[in-house]
Write a structure and sequence with these properties.
Blueprint lengths: L6 E3 L2 E3 L6 E2 L4 E2 L3 H12 L9 H14 L5 H7 L10 H18 L1
Antiparallel strand pairs: 1-2, 3-4
Helix pairs in contact: 1-2, 1-4, 2-4
Length: 107
């Protein structure tokens, strides 16, 4: 990744993508699909500069949760609201398709 930054949310430092907290639940939530998405994004070099990463990962989780097929056209449509300034859409689409396939094979 291009750089690493630590931020604080609710006075707890967030030093990586795996430290995701949801205020509604009051604590950390394990999202199995997140592990598959993170692995796929890393394997496909879809993390790039990090500008679009949060939105792309959120879209990836929505695609996986929808339970549809790992269809490139559908995934492109699903991420169409996110802007990537590094034009890595191909690797993001590949990563999301991989995450969908991984979740289906784990089920």
């Amino acid at each position: 990744m291009a750089g690493v930054a630590a931020v604080a949310a609710s006075a707890a430092p967030i030093t990586g993508l795996r430290a995701i907290y949801f205020g509604i639940s009051g604590g950390p939530v394990h999202l199995p699909a997140l592990d598959a998405a993170l692995e796929a994004f890393a394997a496909r070099n879809a993390l790039q500069c990090g500008f679009c990463t949060p939105g792309m990962l959120a879209s990836a989780l929505a695609c996986v949760a929808a339970g549809g097929p790992a269809d490139r056209t559908a995934v492109r449509n699903d991420i169409s609201g996110n802007c990537c300034r590094r034009t890595s859409y191909r690797s993001v689409v590949d990563a999301i398709c991989d995450a969908i396939a991984a979740e289906k094979s784990a089920a």
